[in-house]
């Protein structure tokens, strides 16, 4: 019996990396992937604005029948997860940077790459200060990087951007935490530039939490359907987004399979 859609929400296409992981664990559930492309990117916006945009997007999709919300956006999670959990009549899970497993895995400096909003957000600093040896963590905001990835994950300007950003930390860097779902599309590039540096992201952890909640709360029940939607109006805009999102979805599945085979 169908229980409703799981909403996977992001401002752009980055959350598709989360969607792939979530659907692997919940292949029979129905998902809506929704990108607020009209207001993207979220990472450079004030917290209050991101909270309002996230709240409005969820409200606009509730008539389609939602059973749970997956915030596949670190900025939206940082800005509004705690508040929205108190407002919604359904479970909500949100991403957070995978700093804890990175600190456990290495002894040296952990570099977190994220949006400006996430890096400066209260949630991020509460998380950081709760972790042992958090003084080994260096968080770097990456303005403009999301937009380059949205244009093309193999954009010619991405490599020089990352080289310049990380050059001062290369000598002591022991791990990289990808604190924005968009950055996960760059895994092949990170591995080529810094082959001995392990990469961490929050997709697997949040997907496991979602699967556990869906099971414990008796919300299982679907046909494995997937709707790809964006906030732009008009049939043509939705078609363009569907084509773009399918490209990025397939691109991520491809690089994940290649990574497994290595």
What's a concise summary of this model?
Helices cover 46% and strands 17% of the residues. The protein is α/β, with parallel strands linked by helices and 262 residues long.
Label this structure with key terms:
single chain; 262 residues; alpha/beta; 5-stranded parallel sheet; 4-stranded parallel sheet; 9 strands; globular
Number of helices: 11
Instruction: Tell me, rounded to a whole number, the average pLDDT.
Output: 94
DSSP strand content:
15-25%
What's the assembly state of these chains? single chain
What is the strand arrangement across the widest sheet? 4-3-1-2-9
Based on CA inertia axes, which overall geometry fits? globular
- Tell me the structural class: alpha/beta
Rounded to an integer in angstroms, the radius of gyration calculated over CA atoms is 18 Å
Task: Please estimate the helix content.
Answer: 40-55%
**What's the helix-strand series?**
EHEHEHEHEHHEHHEHEHEH
- Total strands: 9
Poorly predicted runs are none
Termini separation: 40 Å
Task: Report the major sheet.
Answer: 5 strands, parallel
């Amino acid at each position: 019996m169908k229980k409703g859609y799981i909403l996977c929400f992001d401002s752009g296409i980055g959350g598709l990396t989360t969607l792939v992981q979530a659907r692997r664990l919940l292949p029979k559930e129905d998902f809506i992937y929704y990108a607020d492309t009209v207001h993207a990117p979220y990472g450079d916006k004030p917290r209050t604005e991101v909270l309002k945009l996230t709240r409005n997007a969820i409200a606009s999709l509730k008539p389609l029948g939602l059973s749970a919300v997956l915030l596949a956006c670190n900025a939206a999670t940082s800005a509004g997860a705690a508040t929205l959990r108190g407002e919604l009549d359904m479970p909500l899970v949100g991403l957070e940077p995978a700093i804890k497993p990175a600190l456990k895995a290495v002894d040296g400096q952990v570099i977190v790459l994220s949006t400006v909003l996430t890096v400066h957000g209260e949630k991020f600093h509460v998380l950081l200060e709760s972790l042992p040896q958090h003084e080994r963590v260096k968080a770097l905001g990456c303005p403009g990087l999301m937009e380059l990835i949205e244009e093309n994950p193999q954009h010619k300007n991405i490599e020089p951007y990352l080289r310049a950003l990380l050059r001062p930390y290369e000598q002591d860097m022991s791990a990289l935490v990808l604190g924005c779902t968009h950055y996960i599309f760059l895994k092949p590039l990170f591995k080529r530039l810094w082959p001995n540096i392990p990469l961490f992201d929050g997709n697997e952890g949040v997907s496991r939490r979602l699967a556990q909640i869906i099971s414990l709360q008796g919300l299982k029940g679907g046909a494995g359907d997937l709707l790809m939607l964006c906030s732009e109006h008009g049939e043509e805009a939705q078609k363009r987004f569907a084509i773009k999102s399918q490209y990025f979805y397939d691109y991520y599945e491809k690089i994940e399979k290649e990574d497994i085979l290595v």
